[in-house]
């Protein structure tokens, strides 16, 4: 058998690691180029592969009526590394899949380092990968190095490749006042007691909420550089104070909604708003404040967040922050197989393509790794149908979205082709979701089977 040239993968995040794993499972060697620790980023804390930078949640694990849970299911069926490690290092989170971020990253790193077909090279790829590398997957994620981003701009003729994302703070569990806070998942979701008590809840009455909103609005914020002034936020990850700026009630209809929870300390009193914290590690020693991404300055964060009942004495393992993310206008720049139209030897995968979320990023890495590996083997992988979660995401970034208004997107049923013979309206909503997932599962299973013989 002739020697198979390796696939080069730029970036060791979710998409890059998943792409590498899928390729080596097909017998194709890979070289992962990861710039850390040679070049650090604002948001990363370690040099580990697949580091979870923002939240530690993979979101809903419901594969019967939720698009994210369906995406989990498809990745499991395809022997995905990222979802497999997520399951292995999962934490109680009600109906969601949350992971111990350090154990997760350590295991992904060790697994890839130990594989005989994987080579990991540390150092920045400062510019477009050379053509002599052959098939290359660029999976540099939202924190693409400036040199590489500038090179992509030059070859594509684009003006910018950016938006802003934010990070939520993490609190030491033993600094939370449990005489005010309590454990409960919203609507008691979860099959086990541990899952039904996966979140810590801090209640607010109306006066406390109004004072909190005032503090949010008045707190000093991180100032953007002049060249960052026109960079938009990603709407699904807004800083909590930006939510408040859009309307004083906005946080109370978002991360601070009080529904589905009962305060055991005051069971007869309905909270006006509730702040939730989700377990950050397996030991249960750290909790992140759910939905509380922020661009407040560090000193202001401690003052404002300690005004939350139960967090008056909070000690922070990490404060929140904001960073500039990078993504392509993929419908304009990428072909149907995620290849860069201006340089077809380069594929792009992950958040840099304009999918938003850990599992969305990993799923595009999964597909890119398989496509590139098939090409290395002299075969052509058929693309997954748009009726599947991965196929719907692929279609969205490679032509399904409007070029003029393209923004990062989480997986959702709005990306799927419409269903036939399923009741519409609000009453039919649950049935439609189940029908979407049932159709997707059948089509994904068929696609996997067909791919084996392609």
UniProtKB/TrEMBL annotation:
Any Pfam family hit: GIDA
Any one Gene Ontology BP term: tRNA wobble uridine modification
GO CC annotation terms, alphabetical: cytosol
Domain MnmG N-terminal as annotated: residue spans: 7-379
Entry's localization field: Cytoplasm
Reaction(s) the record says it catalyses: uridine(54) in tRNA + (6R)-5,10-methylene-5,6,7,8-tetrahydrofolate + NADPH + H(+) = 5-methyluridine(54) in tRNA + (6S)-5,6,7,8-tetrahydrofolate + NADP(+); uridine(54) in tRNA + (6R)-5,10-methylene-5,6,7,8-tetrahydrofolate + NADH + H(+) = 5-methyluridine(54) in tRNA + (6S)-5,6,7,8-tetrahydrofolate + NAD(+)
Primary localization: cytoplasm
Binding positions (FAD): 11-16
Protein name: Methylenetetrahydrofolate--tRNA-(uracil-5-)-methyltransferase TrmFO
Upper taxonomic lineage: Bacteria, Pseudomonadati, Pseudomonadota, Alphaproteobacteria, Rhodobacterales
């Amino acid at each position: 058998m002739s020697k198979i040239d390796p696939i080069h993968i730029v970036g060791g995040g979710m998409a890059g690691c998943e792409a590498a794993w899928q390729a080596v499972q097909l017998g194709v060697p890979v070289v992962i180029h990861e710039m850390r620790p040679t070049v650090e980023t604002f948001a990363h804390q370690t040099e580990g592969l697949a580091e979870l930078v923002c939240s530690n949640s993979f979101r809903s694990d419901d594969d019967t009526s939720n698009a994210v849970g369906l995406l989990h299911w498809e990745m499991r069926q395809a022997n995905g590394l990222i979802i497999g490690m997520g399951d292995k290092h999962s934490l109680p989170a009600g109906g969601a899949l949350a992971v111990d971020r350090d154990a997760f990253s350590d295991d992904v790193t060790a697994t890839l380092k130990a594989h005989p077909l994987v080579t990991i090279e540390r150092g920045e790829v400062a510019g477009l990968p050379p053509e002599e590398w052959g098939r290359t997957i660029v999976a540099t994620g939202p924190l693409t190095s400036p040199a590489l981003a500038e090179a992509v701009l030059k070859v594509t003729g684009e003006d910018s490749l950016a938006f802003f994302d934010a990070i939520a703070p993490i609190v030491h569990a033993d600094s939370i006042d449990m005489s005010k806070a309590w454990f409960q998942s919203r609507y008691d979701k979860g099959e086990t007691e541990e899952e039904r008590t996966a979140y810590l809840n801090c209640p607010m009455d109306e006066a406390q909420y109004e004072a909190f909103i005032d503090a949010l609005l008045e707190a000093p914020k991180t100032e953007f550089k002049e060249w960052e002034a026109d960079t938009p936020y990603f709407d699904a990850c807004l800083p909590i104070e930006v939510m408040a700026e859009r309307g004083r009630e906005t946080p109370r209809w978002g991360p601070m909604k009080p529904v589905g929870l009962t305060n055991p300390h005051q069971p007869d009193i309905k909270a006006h708003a509730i702040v939730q914290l989700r377990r950050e590690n397996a030991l249960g020693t750290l909790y992140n404040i759910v939905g509380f991404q922020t661009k407040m300055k560090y000193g202001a964060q401690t003052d404002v967040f300690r005004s939350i009942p139960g967090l008056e004495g909070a000690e922070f393992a990490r404060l929140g922050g904001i960073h500039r993310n990078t993504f392509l206008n993929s419908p304009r720049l990428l072909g149907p197989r995620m290849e860069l139209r201006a340089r077809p030897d380069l594929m792009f995968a992950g958040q840099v393509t304009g999918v938003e979320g850990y599992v969305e990023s990993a799923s595009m890495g999964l597909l890119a790794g398989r496509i590139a590996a098939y090409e290395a083997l002299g075969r052509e992988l058929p693309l997954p149908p748009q009726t599947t979660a991965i196929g719907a995401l692929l279609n969205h970034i490679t032509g399904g979205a409007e070029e003029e208004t393209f923004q990062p997107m989480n997986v959702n049923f709005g990306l799927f082709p419409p269903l036939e013979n399923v009741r519409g309206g609000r009453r039919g909503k649950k049935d439609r979701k189940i029908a979407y997932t049932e159709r997707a599962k059948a089509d994904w299973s068929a696609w996997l089977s067909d791919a084996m013989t392609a």
